Amino acid sequence: MKKLIINADDFGYSRAINYGIIDCFQHGVLSSATFMANMPGADQAADLAKQNPGLGVGVHLVLTCGEPILQNHKTIVDVSGKFRRLAFYESAFNIDLDEVYSEWKAQIDRFLSYGLKPTHLDSHHHINTYKGIRDIFCQLAKEYNLPVRKNMELPSHLRHPDQFEYYVEQILSDEDSLREAFSKADTVEVMCHPGYLDKAVVEGSSYTYPRLDELELLTSNRVDQVLRNCEDVELVTFKSL
Question: For the domain bounded by 2-240, which CATH number is listed?
Fold first, then answer.
């Protein structure tokens, strides 16, 4: 059987995002999510994860959104103490990588403190792919013995799906598109960002209305039928790796 992981990023961002993700799991085809331990919706997301144990939940490591868990950083935060925005990292940047390590370790440990077991690691805005930061990401994946998203070249010792896909609407558009994603892979992860909208999302995220489109897609009868028609493809979580 081919294995398909449909993973929702940003679990814990806000209550609206959390409810959207859970609806896609309970009433749609979502199988996995990743948790933002530093965001205001984290406590609620942890409760929802416990109420829905079939949903695979990993850790969405954050460096470009909200406030850090630790308060002693100097290079990865701005003057107000918030994480620097993604634009900071899109040109030459200079940070203390020890701060990244300690903050990300604190985010993983915060997740563990809820009594949850992470299925995998990935990162917000794919910041794990940036120079220097990628080494910290791989180090933590090894330390915690967790699979990772395959959005960059990875060391051979780390577990990961064979393939990573960015565009959920394209992959799930019909049976041919889904089968094409598996043409050179046995396990595929598809990223998505479903959610409802609240003030936190509208004011804080650059990705707003498309979240509603993705939610509608993932809970639609059409996509459910696409998966039913592909009998050699099963929905799984990162636990299956």
Answer: 3.20.20.370
pLDDT at site 92? 87
**Whether pTM exceeds 0.70:** yes
Residue spans per domain, the chain: 2-240
Q: Please compute, for residue 231, the number of CA atoms within 13 A of its CA located in the half-sphere on the CB side.
A: 0
Instruction: Scan for tokens 């010792």, then name that residue.
Output: 157
Reading phi first (left if > 0) and then psi (alpha if -120 to 50, else beta), residue 18 is in: alpha
pLDDT in tens, 35-68: 999 999 999 999 999 999 999 999 999 999 999 9
- Residue 81 has which token pair? 């103490």
In one letter, which amino acid is 95?
I
Asked whether the CA dihedral 108, 109, 110, 113 is positive or negative, the reply is positive
Residue type, 1: M
Interior angle at CA 195, CA 190 and CA 198, nearest 5 = 155
Q: How far apart are CA 95 and CA 76, in angstroms?
A: 6
Burial-class residue 175 by CB neighbours within 10 Å (0-12, 13-18, 19+): middle
Quote the CA–CA distance of 170 and 181 in Å, as a whole number.
Answer: 10
